[in-house]
Amino acid sequence: MSAMGRKRTFLFLQCRTSSVLRCSVKDSPEPSLPALPAPEPGLPDHPAFATDAEENKALFAKGGKLPMPVLAIGGDHSYGAAMKPELESVADHVDGAVIANSGHWIMEEQPAAAVPVITGFLAKGAH
Length: 127
Prior knowledge:
127 residues, alpha+beta, 43% helix, 15% strand
């Protein structure tokens, strides 16, 4: 894929997963870019996820869960509350939060809502 094709695909994926970035192919600043392929089911953008998952299972089976506090934040237009139980499979002490009106890019989309959650979590560890 050419650099132009990769750029167009990247922008498309950002628009598709973001609650703030609402755009379409026709809104592209570069209308000469080639048409995007139709999205495939599953996780074609991240082919190593399945391998990573198996390797992580083996690692945590051998070494146990993470002992330190972990903060699991999900955007309500993305992972939402599902982030916390997913991380509880690898960590003993997980705090969870859901950021409203946010997708995958929480800090870019809702920094005013995310910062207090993060600083509150960090402050709890300072005691």
